[in-house]
Amino acid sequence: MTYCLGIVTKYGLVMASDSRTNAGYDQVNTVKKMHTFVTPGERVFIILASGSLSCTQSVVTLLRRDFDKGEGLAKAATMYDAARAVGDKVRAVREVDKAALEQDDYKFNVHILLGGQIKGEPPQLFMLYPQGNPLQTSEESPYLQIGETKYGRPILDRGIRFDKTTLEEAAKYALLSMDSTMKSNVTVGPPVDLLAYPADELDVTRHRRFMPDDPDLAKIRNRWEQALRQAVARLPDLRFNNRPGVREEESIQLVDRNSAEGAPELQPQAGVRTPPQTS
Amino acid sequence: MTYCLGIVTKYGLVMASDSRTNAGYDQVNTVKKMHTFVTPGERVFIILASGSLSCTQSVVTLLRRDFDKGEGLAKAATMYDAARAVGDKVRAVREVDKAALEQDDYKFNVHILLGGQIKGEPPQLFMLYPQGNPLQTSEESPYLQIGETKYGRPILDRGIRFDKTTLEEAAKYALLSMDSTMKSNVTVGPPVDLLAYPADELDVTRHRRFMPDDPDLAKIRNRWEQALRQAVARLPDLRFNNRPGVREEESIQLVDRNSAEGAPELQPQAGVRTPPQTS
After folding, report:
1. Cβ of B162 under 8 Å from any chain A Cβ?
2. Nearest chain B Cα distance for residue A220, angstroms
3. A254 vs B16: CA distance, rounded Å
4. Residue at A11 is within a domain
5. What is the pTM (predicted TM-score) of this model?
6. Residues with Cβ < 8 Å from B54, sequence gap 6 or more?
7. ipTM over the 0.85 cut-off
8. Domain tally for chain A?
9. Which residues contact B127 (CB under 8 A, 6 or more apart)?
């Protein structure tokens, strides 16, 4: 299995991928799923891929060949054109391999994330479906995932905001999303490639590979679990009724038990009324 | 779709279920998926069900009929026997309905969570597979989920500990797990039934149904999202290398930017070395 994600905010892009690949449980290998194409000062592309490794390798190989000749991604006028260039290669490999795969009941299941920026445009993020058609993020939904996407989604849903999440924070969200997935699904595993791209840098300067048992990853995970437990403990206790089926009128007890201990006061949200403290 | 979960810790049981049921997108209904069987002072059972509503209703109907006659769950000597009594009803319905379902390409997909306590035993939690065989939690893995399980799992994986998580905290984890799932999957929806059972109470006294747009649920969600964002902001910033492929020696920058602002100091974990502050 694979888990890859991309986040785009007004501050830039974060891309993350795991490195686990398997053909059955007894043949588990490590492979890089992050590929960069850079013309410094002019254009930057980061590609993440999930699906049959043989097919995704072919897509990347064809893209690299074009890029090195000054074609494809190297000459795309816009990020949309770049996404179409990637989709064309997905379709090219699909054309070559799909029939043979399906004869043996394999699906052509290549999914690609394309993040990047071309000078004059803001950073953008696309997903290419196995059919080669591109989907772009929106400000309301500023991230995309491929592969084993469910475990790592809630933290993104809760936290990422296009206009507020800094690049540093987006990198932490990406790592936490990846870590949640690795914790819940053993077929997603390190090394983890994490790349942060600040808007308008037009070069790749911030990459980190977290190896298995990376002490810093372990530290982040420990700190995060402690912070989550603290946050749960600080939520107001729930108030219950006596029995199922009884008409519910009671409210959550809103007195924060920890407020006297110096816990940070959370801002009340506009539009949420304070329920009366009924018994 | 359905999402149900149960948590068992040394302090008791928490059970939670959504109420969304659908037969296609244009026929979405609300149905209670939590059923209780209580003989006060002697035995308590809470049953949550996922799968075809017609089949799960039949299982519950058969269990209720036996219980009211003093049989089945009413006379099971142990929780294991109770789990077997539920599994027998799963098999009985399977025997009656499976063949007809499969003729039209439907699967017999009933999954049941059974939590409860019989006087003299600790509270216990089982899952019944569609084949009727029971699976019990362990202290290392003290929760079980059925239905749309992935979105709501990371928060449980991070937080629940059999010997440390109080009943009040377990109820918050269950609600957060449910809320994460509802946020990421629209086919899981309120009302949410939440039941907390303190060990040795041998009665059901703490239940709450969260209706759609419950202001308290909205408040919990808002507070939680703010707490998560604060926790992410307080994690140490990540340090990056210059380019992918460069040998990584750098460490996370471990100076906590917020530590001077009175943020709670997180305990270093045993066995995690402090990496040197290389540049």
Report:
1. no
2. 7
3. 21
4. yes
5. 0.81
6. B97
7. no
8. 2
9. B111, B112, B113, B114, B134, B135, B144, B146
